[in-house]
């Protein structure tokens, strides 16, 4: 688009805040090809240098009782990026399926849009939203799931890290101080806490 870096960052953050995903705004307002964007952005990331297998995450997923729940990944990334991340983390064989942003469709949906969650339920063959378990590192995405009646929602708010959110640096852990507990949203700072929060779905 030929924008100066600061202006591009501001636009990125604006669309991230407005749509939950920057590329959603770029496609809608600037006719950006989402597949080309994915190839040049997520597709070019040296993930093998940035990520590594996560034995603790693998153990957590292995301990979930699959006779009680099925484990799916819901992501605002495209399928190729999501699959690559799960493979590098060493948990791809423990995920039944992935609900992703279909960049091949210019009118794709993403979290926190209602259509994304409804599509996830259709794809998984779930009719009762109260049976859905959902964890996300975006409080906005968790709130959207709760509004749809997903009854087992958790905000993952890992502390002590710096992340990029909408093109802006963000200290992870601040969201949990902004009303999770008072609003009734369950928040965890370590994924292993799910063994307590969702004790009913873990093997004993």
Automatic annotation (TrEMBL):
Biological processes, Gene Ontology terms: nucleotide catabolic process; pyrimidine nucleobase metabolic process
InterPro entries the record matches: HAD-like_sf, HAD-SF_hydro_IA, HAD_sf, Pyr-5-nucltdase, SSM1_domain
Protein name per UniProt: Suppressor of disruption of TFIIS
Signal sequence annotation: none
Source organism phylogeny: Eukaryota, Fungi, Dikarya, Basidiomycota, Agaricomycotina
SUPFAM superfamilies xrefs: HAD-like (SSF56784)
Pfam families: Hydrolase (PF00702)
GO molecular function, one term: nucleotidase activity
């Amino acid at each position: 688009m030929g924008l100066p870096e600061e202006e591009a960052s501001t636009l990125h953050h604006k669309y991230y805040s407005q749509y939950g995903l920057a590329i959603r705004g770029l496609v809608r307002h600037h006719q950006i090809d989402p597949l080309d964007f994915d190839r040049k952005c997520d597709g070019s990331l040296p993930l093998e240098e940035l990520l590594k297998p996560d034995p603790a995450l693998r153990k957590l997923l292995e301990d979930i009782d699959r006779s009680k729940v099925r484990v799916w990944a819901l992501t605002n990334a495209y399928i190729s990026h999501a699959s690559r991340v799960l493979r590098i983390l060493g948990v791809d064989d423990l995920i039944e399926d992935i609900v992703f942003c279909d960049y091949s469709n210019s009118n794709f949906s993403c979290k926190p849009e209602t259509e994304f969650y409804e599509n996830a339920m259709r794809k998984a063959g779930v009719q009762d939203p109260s049976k859905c378990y959902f964890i996300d590192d975006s409080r906005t995405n968790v709130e959207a799931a709760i509004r749809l009646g997903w009854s087992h929602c958790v905000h993952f708010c890992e502390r002590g890290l710096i992340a990029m959110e909408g093109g802006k640096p963000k200290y992870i852990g601040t969201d949990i101080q902004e009303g999770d507990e008072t609003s009734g949203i369950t928040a965890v700072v370590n994924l292993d806490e799910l063994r307590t929060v969702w004790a009913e779905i873990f093997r004993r």
